[in-house]
Specification:
Elements (H helix, E strand, L loop, with lengths): L7 H24 L4 H27 L4 E2 L1 H12 L6 H13 L15 H5 L25 H8 L1 H20 L2 H24 L20 H6 L6 H6 L15 H11 L3 E2 L6 H23 L4 H33 L6 H28 L7
Antiparallel strand pairs: 1-2
Helix pairs in contact: 1-8, 2-3, 2-4, 2-8, 7-8, 12-13, 13-14
């Protein structure tokens, strides 16, 4: 089968940037050195531009996981342009296609099932889906956003001004224009590129699937450290409209923290979160599936144990629903400022009882699902 034509501009761009980063930057470091201001500027711009992709291009515009004021959107639009990953409109369009057709090789723009190289960078080097390069019909909402369209229509000037002019000015003030442009400009762009690309490649290859196995997306706390919190990718692919990727307080997700912090001063709002009962049920379903597969492989006649496990699972789901339903009712009562009424006290007591019953059933199910198995 004949391969699609090479996109010469992209090949040249990635090649030149990479060669400068792996040859030019080390040479400059050994010959002239980089001072503290250049290093700090690079780190700051790395986080700023990287999270302009994760907080802006990805969670704000691609998934509408929260809303932001004009200032936040403008800053994220400029920061996103500094990464050289195309305009918001184009990036979001590709990403929405990815979620709609994940792992479908002829539809997913960066399908992980076509291998690491393809999903990481190869998909941008050839015209694999040229027919939809300018088809933004899945982003009609974004076409109504003035900041999105301003960035899309003036993408190249914004890229040039934000990257060359800003880094050159900082370098001039610091006494070394070329040094600043090498480290905080080109090297930083390459680093942000590959950090972002890891989400499409490694996050679909390396990790666990605690929420769904309907696609290749994986949860990986190590990758979260390098991707501004996007490493919890299995969760994201089943609950894509959640503004969080790392849902536990200890999960490293600086993108989530920035969005939440901005909401405290009113700059972001309507932060969307998946209901906790839905998250729990997704985990239980996967636990059940893993346990059944383990039993079928290790037991000669596992039907009886599987039947018991399924019964415990059904009971667990029922108690989960009862508990979270009562919790929602209690919250509604409290929101009506009825905390001290008899109804509130009764509801609180019932909620605690259902929580205890749910936790006890959860322990029974987990114990059975993870029971030690003897080889056949």
């Amino acid at each position: 089968m004949k391969k699609p034509p090479i996109i010469v501009f992209n090949v040249v761009l990635f090649t030149v940037l990479t060669l400068i980063s792996v040859i030019g930057v080390p040479y400059w470091a050994l010959t002239y050195g980089f001072n503290t201001f250049e290093i700090v500027t690079t780190v700051v711009l790395f986080f700023f531009t990287g999270m302009s992709i994760t907080a802006g291009y990805h969670r704000l515009w691609s998934h509408k996981a929260y809303e932001a004021n004009a200032l936040v959107k403008f800053v994220l639009a400029v920061g996103g342009a500094m990464t050289l990953q195309n305009s918001i409109l184009h990036w979001a369009s590709d990403h929405r296609v990815h979620h709609r057709h994940v792992d479908v090789n002829d539809k997913d723009p960066y399908s992980a099932k076509r291998g690491f190289w393809f999903s990481h960078i190869g998909w941008m080097l050839r015209e694999y889906q040229a027919e939809r390069y300018t088809d933004y019909s899945n982003c009609r909402d974004l076409q109504k956003d003035k900041i999105v369209m301003w960035q899309h229509n003036y993408y190249v000037p914004i890229v040039l001004v934000s990257n060359i002019a800003i880094t050159a000015l900082l370098g001039y003030l610091n006494g070394s224009v070329l040094g600043m442009m090498l480290l905080a400009g080109i090297c930083r762009i390459v680093l942000v590129h590959h950090v972002t690309f890891f989400i499409n490649s490694l996050c679909h290859i390396w990790g666990k699937q605690p929420y769904t196995d309907c696609n290749t997306a994986k949860d990986n706390g190590i990758l979260a450290l390098f991707t501004f919190g996007e490493g919890y990718h299995n969760y994201h692919h089943i609950f894509e409209y959640d503004y969080r990727n790392g849902i536990k307080w200890w999960h490293y997700d600086p993108t989530k923290w920035v969005i939440k912090a901005l909401s405290l001063i009113g700059w972001t709002k309507n932060l969307r979160k998946c209901p906790e009962d839905k998250i729990q049920q997704a985990k239980f379903a996967m636990q059940l599936q893993f346990a059944k597969e383990k039993l079928e492989h290790r037991y000669p006649n596992p039907e009886e144990v599987i039947a018991k496990l399924e019964a415990e699972y059904e009971l667990l789901v029922a108690k989960c629903n009862e508990y979270y339903l009562s919790k929602k009712r209690l919250m509604r009562i409290q929101q009506r400022q009825l905390k001290r009424t008899v109804d509130s006290i009764d509801m609180h007591t019932k909620c605690e009882e259902l929580k205890a019953a749910f936790q006890a059933q959860k322990m029974r199910f987990n114990s059975l699902a993870s029971m030690p198995l003897q080889p056949v």
